[in-house]
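User: Last request for today: this protein with 2-acetamido-2-deoxy-beta-D-glucopyranose, please.
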Amino acid sequence: MNPLKMYIVFLTMACVGLFIPRQINGEVFTALADMEELLETEAYLIGNLEAYIATQEQKLKFLKRRAIDYQKEHNEAESDVSAYLSNPINAYLLTKRLTSDWKSIESVMAYDVGSEYLGNITVYRQFLKFPSDEDLNGAAVALMRLQDTYNLDTSSIAKGELNGVQYSTEMTANDCFEMGRQSYLNKDYYHTALWMREAMDRLTSDTNHTTSTSKADILEYLAFSVYKQGNVVSALRMTNQLLELLPDHERAMGNKVFYEKHLKEEEVIKADKKLKGDDGSDELEAENFYLKPYSNPHIYSTPERRLYEQLCRNEIRLSLAELSKLKCKYVTNNSHFLKIAPLKLEEAHLKPYIVIYHDVMHDEEIEFVKQVARPRFKRATVQNHKTGELEVAHYRISKSAWLKDEEHKYVADISQRVEDMTGLTTETAEELQVVNYGIGGHYEPHFDFARREETNAFTSLGTGNRIATVLFYMSDVEQGGATVFPLLNLSLWPKKGTAAFWYNLHASGEGDYLTRHAACPVLMGQKWVSNKWLHERNQEFLRPCELLPDHAEM
Ligand SMILES: *[C@@H]1O[C@H](CO)[C@@H](O)[C@H](O)[C@H]1NC(C)=O
Ligand SMILES: *[C@@H]1O[C@H](CO)[C@@H](O)[C@H](O)[C@H]1NC(C)=O
Ligand SMILES: *[C@@H]1O[C@H](CO)[C@@H](O)[C@H](O)[C@H]1NC(C)=O
Ligand SMILES: *[C@@H]1O[C@H](CO)[C@@H](O)[C@H](O)[C@H]1NC(C)=O
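Assistant: Here's the final one, the structure of the complex with 2-acetamido-2-deoxy-beta-D-glucopyranose:
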């Protein structure tokens, strides 16, 4: 699935004016299955539009034929008025044309072909899935999240290029304008300015004027967003440009006065300072204030965020010294099953110990798990550590479902394999959680274990804390979607059929804070994973407690 295409599907529907306000869900865009339904909706709409055009054309064809007939008759009359009108038949026909004939023409002209087809759309709304305004906003935000995380420049995205790979869809000036408008609605003036500039560039190069967006519209948003970013000089310049195009634009006139007043006040302050014998350093600051580059307030807001994004982009890796200590090996580990089919283990990190097992879920199992999970998908939730309640959160966008061992042999087989891989029991484990990350789906840095202050977490389960995590990758991801550990400089790239395993707790039962990890947003394609979270209870003899918080190594 291509994020640009998805956004444009939403946008097309928005432009046709088909959005209906629904409950705020903002989750349509998280899964591919939902997007498929939207394509079906679009097929209906296109069919309806074509039928409308055909009917409208029939109507125009009829009127055109009449016009030609009348014109012909009229020309004849004009060529010799008295001869024409002295013919009693002609006199009758002219009178008829201007009475009953014109009445029928008028009624055809007045006949509103559109209302029937608009009625069709009302019907569609009852049985087809339509995205809401929130969905459009969500799709735009998802695209901007990808832009920030993967450092993509606006014009490349608009050209349909993601991370150097050319995908087919190109965005129009109006597509970009809408990206800007959505950012504006979210009060995100940084992205408003980026996308409005792009819209302006596209409009200037679009010599065919195929778009409904006007230069004045763009200038208005652009001026306000650069003002909000502190650049009053540019805001004023753009407003003046806007007034050149539309001298009567009332809001622009008001804004012009406002910006000028703002600038004058700044000048007074500056002059005041000079009088007081300032050394001019503040002046420099004020100058910078106006020339402040457009900075993204969201990006790099914390050192962790910076690391997280760099890891998602594969810009940071383990040092060679660390890499050289890692091994690959076959493990049999006293299991009868494994003696026949040993597991392929690849060490990903030593302290804490994180391993990748290769070929631990085969395609048939993967297809089965996806198929069973799909109809049960819900927007993934996180536990509120204060109340212990599950709730949706903007920092975890994905769909998930839970599968029980008893449901099918395959699910039980997977649990058995988890035991073989970890040497732990799955008796106290949670059910298999299946997760689908669509475009922009992600999970920001988090711990899998409950921290001390999270007193309500897992208490209802009565199985202790999450001692370990097994994360199965059930798809390859075309671009993005890594699992990253910001404190370790480690990125794990999804590969279908592999699984990652690590302990969340030290042998002493203390949480291992270095296991903090995140799921990077999916840039292209989609990501399927499943989790098996193992709990402390009943592991006493399998992983004996120790007093020191020893890192587990196997
Ligand atoms: C749409 O409306 C037209 C005119 O009323 C009707 O002929 C047509 O069957 C409708 N199409 C659908 C798919 O409902
Ligand atoms: C503009 O229109 C012409 C003729 O209709 C077409 O050949 C050309 O490709 C169009 N250019 C763009 C940028 O769409
Ligand atoms: C092997 O089995 C032992 C004991 O059953 C367990 O402690 C260890 O973690 C297992 N290791 C692997 C790699 O499965
Ligand atoms: C991770 O990489 C950054 C940048 O290369 C480096 O400054 C930092 O020390 C590394 N951290 C670890 C834990 O290796």
